[in-house]
User: Fold this.
Amino acid sequence: MNVKETVLKQLAASEGEYISGAALARNMNISRNAVWKVVKSLEKEGFSIEAVTSKGYRISEDNNKLSEDIIKAVEKSDRDIIVLDEVDSTNDYAKKLAARGAKNGTAVIADRQTAGKGRMGRNFVSPPGCGVYISIIIRPKFGIETSPLITSAAACAAANAIEMLCKENVGIKWVNDLYMNDKKICGILTEASMGLEMRSLDYAVIGIGINVGKNDEFDSELRRRASSIEECTGKKIDRNRLCAEILRLIDIYLENPESREYLEEYRKREILTGHEITAQTGGTSIRGIAEGIDDNANLIVRLADGSKIHLGSGEATLCRPVNNS
Ligand code: BTN
Assistant:
């Protein structure tokens, strides 16, 4: 690890407390002047660091530069993390890494995506500086029959991480869209690769896109349906902390999805349940009342004739917006 990485890690590990130049210098066996030079060079790279006489240095609360060193220090992990300024899609990048043997838990994070992918072949608008675009490689220990549970467990992990940081309720719209104040703030795209015997998953890539800060790239149609954490709460969220929290919770939620313990939380968060919905599934459109989530994370829909269907995939929308006020 070079000096810059070590300084960043120490500053991040201090969790907002100042560390004196003398302590940093001592820990790394370099001069205080050398520490100062490293801090200046980190600032040039875009990190926002406060220096206060007689206190020392700390990462500013408003630092908005993503860094694998900060994320690892906050998560207290040593997982493989790749942070990129720009990439076409973190999911595509992660799939290439996974095919080359990247470890379980490897994360790819970008400040900007030029071809961010959404579900159903849509694009995911991913401007720089205001989102978290993260893809996590998992090499599941569980069987292929458990794979439908991956996305819903990941949705709970992401909802929890966001709530932890902004203290505002996060809902889940089946399958995996996260909502705040009736607007979508996060989408999840999971892509999987089958093992050779087709009975196991070789790997899955869980791609999570979160609108964190205000952005000007949403057109008026998108603005009607989507928002960002900052616009909903008025709070500026530290993207490095959010990444660290997501990674910590993904590990926990995906440890044993077969237990289905997380489904109770998923059901509490799910926002379609109890409402009239339309759903697109397998090329057809249906209308009915969403009655809940079954044990395989399918949406149960009661149709007009009283019969029930369990939807495993597709897209559902409320016929009328829910008024929370
Ligand atoms: C959706 O809302 O339809 C899913 C959006 C998923 C977006 C994330 S951003 C990180 C990862 N990389 C991608 O290209 N897509 C996912």
User: Anything to note?
Assistant: The radius of gyration is 21 Å.
